[in-house]
Amino acid sequence: MPRSSFWHAFANMESISRCEPLVLERGEGVTVWDTSGRRYLDAVAGLWNCNVGHGRQEIADAARDQLGKLASFSTFGDYSNGPSEELAARLTALAPMPDASVFLTSGGSDSVDTAIKMVRRYWSALGQPERRTVVSRESAYHGMHFGGTGLAGIEPNRAGYGDLVPDTARIPWDSADALEKTIESLGAQNVAAFICEPVLGAGGILLLPEGYLREVARICRASGVLLVLDEVITGFGQIGDWFAAHRFGVEPDLVLCAKGLTSGYLPMGAVLSLCQPDQVLAIMRV
Ligand SMILES: Cc1ncc(COP(=O)(O)O)c(C=O)c1O
Questions:
Q1: Which domain holds residue 263?
Q2: Cα–Cα distance, 41 to 121 (Å, whole number)
Q3: Which pTM was predicted?
Q4: Residue 101 lies in a domain
Q5: What's the rounded Cα separation, in Å, for the pair 281 and 279?
Q6: How far is the CA of 24 from the centre of ligand 1 (A)?
Q7: What's the total number of domains in the chain?
Q8: How do residues 202-214 score in pLDDT, each as one tens digit?
Q9: Which is it for the CA torsion 141, 124, 171, 196, positive or negative?
Q10: Ligand 1 and 147: CB distance under 6 A
Q11: What is the Cα gyration radius of the chain?
Q12: In this structure, is residue 22 part of a structural domain?
């Protein structure tokens, strides 16, 4: 078998190179077919991201129409474009907080790294630059970019990269009490944000204890720590509401999304922010 040049993510390439890969060719709704015509039920929705199913012609048509008009352009400074404005308005209407600002990204990992920078820059702009620590949880997965790897609670995902992001702390994934104690011991004046997945995804697909999200939201409010919900998986209907924040009745400061945002038809993510652009985004542009 000739050696493939294709480097798979999350794979032991040594063993992969010794087997025939499963090559998928097309999909329709919840069904995908491989190159030999064998049919499979896509029970994992691609990579937990194909929320509206495969083969949706209207999405392909919309992408083709747009690519034929204008593929991309800078949105620095006062540049804008219709699709970005339209999408931002739609996301603001769906967001689990009032009047959210929308920062578009290239995917979930990019949303996570953007959020880490946003929360630190936010506190710095408010004259509290020592509020830098981002608290995450054991077993957490926040993508594989540098910032998200630095917050990871799945140890093998952190191994071998040397020093990651400074000023982070990890707590047990299911204890709101641990959050309160950690904020207390670090000093709230040093803590920028707490980030969590509303359902623990890559770390085991585990539901949080009853009332956990409301309790951590209360602790964050009481200590001024920003609450960042990583809804990259749970967003866009995956757990029966637009966002887990709706379902569990919490109002986060930032919501991170990707995956279901485009259903995997394009790589794209977003940070929905309760903080207004004049507080954060405008500051980030200077
Ligand atoms: C909770 C969570 N955050 C972030 C990410 C990273 O998203 P992406 O793969 O789009 O970079 C993932 C991916 O599975 C995820 O599950």
A1: 71-285
A2: 45
A3: 0.95
A4: yes
A5: 7
A6: 22
A7: 1
A8: 999 999 999 999 9
A9: negative
A10: no
A11: 20
A12: no
